[in-house]
Backbone:
């Protein structure tokens, strides 16, 4: 038996919890590493939605934070960032 999804103000507030961390990292990857904004934000959004639907809990953003922090610190190319996500 699966629990129904809840969409209320508490769920909405929880969905914005990592915005303060992810937004600066995403903007940095767009500006420093030359990534396309649509791909960055679409990738983040799809990851959150699909992992939430599959696991039925929110997914921590730590793997994305590690990859983006390393990319910003070293200035690696877009191809290397995409390969690290696989």
Residues:
């Amino acid at each position: 038996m699966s629990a129904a999804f809840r969409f209320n103000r508490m769920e909405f507030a929880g969905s914005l919890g990592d915005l303060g961390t992810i937004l600066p990292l995403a903007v940095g990857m767009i500006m420093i590493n030359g990534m396309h904004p649509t791909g960055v934000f679409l990738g983040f959004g799809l990851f959150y939605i699909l992992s939430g639907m599959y696991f039925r809990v929110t997914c921590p953003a730590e793997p994305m934070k590690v990859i983006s922090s390393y990319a910003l610190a070293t200035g690696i190319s877009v191809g290397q960032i995409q390969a690290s996500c696989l």
In short: The longest helix spans residues 37-55. The radius of gyration is 14 Å. The chain has a mean pLDDT of 83. The CA atoms of residues 49 and 83 lie 22 Å apart.
